[in-house]
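Hello Y.,

Per our agreement to keep a running log of every chain we model this quarter, I'm adding this entry. I've kept the format consistent with earlier entries: sequence first, then predicted structure.
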Amino acid sequence: MKAAVFHAHGPIENLAVEDWPAPEPGPRDCLIRVEAVALNGFDPMILAGIPGLKTPLPMIPGADIAGTIVACGAEVDGARWRPGARVLVIPNRPDGMMGETLRGGACELIAVDQDALLPLPDAVGAPQAACLPVAYGAARRMMVARGRVAAGETVLVLGASGGVGTACVQLAKAAGAEVIACAGGAWKGERLKALGADHVIDSTTQDFVAEVWRLRGKPSYRHGGGGVDVVVNYTGGESWARSLRVLTRHGRLLTCGATAGYDPATDIRYIWSFELAIIGSNGWEREDLIALLKMVAAGDLDPVIHARRPLAEIGVAMRELVDRQVFGKQVLEP
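Predicted structure for the entry above:
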């Protein structure tokens, strides 16, 4: 079979499509023909090498996988799974994360334990499904299970143009919230408006603190009012302390990552003065993916796809991720 493989950490040029032995399913495995695999922001990071994370080499990237079962191991429950069934793979497994410490799905065939599969509704296509696990799963757990975003609230989403960001915008709107979306570039802002954002902030030309104060008023810890109820910040870095300045009294800061730095300066005065809550969210649960599939099938959620490409163009997709030229998800179709 064909697979995208890197044998050493380094630049995108280290990644190439080559012949790779087709996997043999174990007793509890289903052999899946990969129809769509979506990339995430961590894929270029894994390729480059993350200090402290041991990635087995050679490695096949790609954690978000949807496809069709073509064969089943001897111990697979035939009442649940059989050849021809369309499935979504749950990539965070007890023994590791696909695309990070376990080989991923940027290939034509993959063997997956039956307990790491979900059935695809007829109304959900493979490219849509492949967008869901990492980005949309993380977004739903952060916004719904942990953050409990509600109707009538105002939500600021930083880094709103990527997979997690576009998911957060849609989930906040689905909950009935007003959304302020922040991203770099006017073209991304226009797409965020089309996605449902009520206001957009261009981080390349505008200061998000000043813009939130202009739109909502400056928060007051004495009298309440002003600012936003929720800030979604999974970048960290220099935006972390500044996020505290736009939250209203009893506001919530939600985080599921730190792509711009995990050890930022902060300002504890805002936390106690405004009685703020900082809420962490780590990954997703099976129930999050089931709920997302139901939303997509019902037409209540539309995963944003930046581009659909053949596996041979994985290098192009990776380069666009690194250069921040992506709105939504990069999907490859082996």
